[in-house]
Amino acid sequence: MSLHLEGVYQTGADALDIGLSDSLVVANGAGTFVIMTSGIAGGLSVYRLEADGRLSPHDTQVFPSALQTGLGGTITFAEIDGAPVVFIGGDDNEAWGYAFEPDGQIGPLHSYDWATVQAAAATDAPGALQAWGQFSGVTGLAAQMPVPADNLVAVHNLGAAQTGYMLSLDRAAGQVFSHSFGSDGGYVQIAVLGAAEGLAISNPTAMEIANFGTNSFAIIASATGSSISVVEVGLDGSLTPVQQLIDTASTRFANVQDLTLVQDGDHVFVMAIGADHGVTVFRLLPDGHLVFLETFEDDLGGALDTPTTINAQFQNGILHAFIGTQDTAALLHLQSDQSNLGQVLSSSLQGADLLSGSNGDDILLAGSDADTLTGGAGHDILSSGPGHSTLTGGTGNDIFVIRAESTRVEITDFRPGQDRLDLTDLPMLRNLGQVEVATTTTGAVIRFRDMEIVITAHNSAMLSLADLFPDGLFGADSMLIIAGETDPVPPPDPPPDPPPPPGPPGVQMDGTNTHDSLLGGEGDDTLNGARGNDTIRGWDGNDLIDGGNGHDRLWGGAGQDTIYGGARNDMIGGGSGNDLLYGGTGNDSIYGGAGNDTIYGEQDDTRLWGMSGHDLIHGSTLGGRIGGGGGDDTVIGGSGNDTIYGGAVIGNDSIDGGSGDDMLWGMEGDDTLIGGLGDDFLGGALGNDRLHGGPGDDTVRGAEGADTFVFLDGDETLLIEDFSFADGDQLELDNTLWQAGLTLDQMLGIHGTVANGDIVLDFGDGDVITLAGLANIGLLADYITII
Prior knowledge:
The protein is mainly beta and 787 residues long. Among the domains are: 12-142, no CATH class; 341-478, Alkaline Protease, subunit P, domain 1; 562-786, no CATH class. It contains five helices and 66 strands. It has a 15-stranded mixed beta sheet. It has a 14-stranded parallel beta sheet with strand order 38-40-42-44-46-48-50-52-54-56-58-60-62-66, with no helix packed on it. A seven-stranded mixed beta sheet has the order 26-28-30-32-36-35-34, with no helix packed on it.
């Protein structure tokens, strides 16, 4: 892409050049203008983007001292009654903004009551909703939300007012919300997405929106997590996490300060700045995935030490980026020639498609099995699809993006030194030691888990690991996103058809070999369904229910019930009380209900939900999905591949995956997660969690809180995605992993190294720990406990 510095600009007035905090780009009939603000005690500076690509100083304005208490260092561009305004702040009664004249000059300062700004937002006036949300505080837009936001970072409207949706980002809650516009002028919450729902966006700093036809995506920056997340906004206002990238040694968005998005048709560029002195550039694909392009690092003598704001604009085929800094009196202007942008093509989801690019820089996306993509000339991006994909880049510097849903990808013309492999989407891949690379006579084969990438060199020559990855796994790391689970609402009690009269207290009722409906009474009933697809309800009392052989629907009701599903696929609900529930054979769905229930999935593929109460849940032989629900639950997976959630309601859960390749997610509370045998993923989410992967190739993520990661002799490999000194995380190590008598510093000197920006502890015999994104091994001894 070749992003380069065009120039460094100043007004010559320290009050306007030092402490730049926010920026805007405004294009009108007179040209393109860059507006910078230097915060509370500063003002506005305007630069004009000339036809030759340079900036020229255009106008300045120092803020009146009387307004400083209502300024926050941010600015917003909006139209009020058709007149363009640069809003700079406000108080409980009114907003303040400068008129922006047609020639790019700063006009008079005006005040607007909030009712005027709100009315403009209701009529889709550009920028009015953003101005209202940004400056009206907790008594304005935020107060009208069903869940009031403590600190709105950004607000965007998608679609027309009254028929579209509003998207808001709350810094204090670390959540993004979607709202529809109510008939009474208020807002109706549609969806919320945050750590409890599986996407941690702690201390968000920016949100931008990209649109591909009817598909919309929000790109969100998180300072605390040094992450950039992509969320799809559905036509119904739903929020679906697509991707979350975290900063690495080869990117420059640590503690993300700001990001911007610039779009030319379906070509979307995302640029982010961080505290690590640089700019990172991505392309956003139409499916919502980011592809790393390059970083621009500070070689300007510290000019990028403290970047605070970034904006961008296309003009005459050139991508322009404008960066303001906190401590350096400078506006940096970067450029990249993008005059050769080509086609953006996505295959259908139906069958084997053939997509061919142009002579430009194309983006081609496979969407179904057996798709074939051919880039042609130009610097192309080719993304594999589900199943089998064949990718041919053609001439140019091409990027081959390998997607996680692919099983076999064939690359037919890889050019070492020009082309690049992007494996960002592969889950939990952090270093090249996790992949198998075999050189062939015509190229190489890469294997990762169940995926195979067959690469043929453009000249059919052998390819080495260094040919394929000269800079290692270059770019950002991808976090595995696990959508949070809330307790499902069990189906309503099925009405008997026809309902028999309630039996006397304490009766025994036996079904037949047909489809029976049995209804207990107020006592302790014994109800046997026998054969057939039965519907049985115990009602009150401590009932004993056996569904027998058939697809049964069994409901305990009030009381401490014991229910056996029997053979075949049953649906079981315990109801209130401390129930004992057995699935039997078949693919069963079991809901514990209120009370401290004990649930056994037993055999086959099951769905087990504890609901409220302190539940004990045992998984089944073939695995399944298990949710503890509210309370302090104990969940023990079976011998299959389980997906287990502690529950979205706060509870201190204990989860053991058992054998199999399990996925465990603690959710809220101080949870204990044990992977057991197999290649497991453990996610702590909120709270101070304890995570032990067990034997196998495990990946763990503590997320928020002071988490403890346990590693014992014989546990094989462990990847810790987010070990944090700042959070107070701890590493508990078995003292039999190394020679007796060594201090922790001596142990780290013998067994510890730093590779590709990660701390690696190799104890031999296959026992290896990787702490992703940590390079300061000298601090680690203070965060290790010997057990």
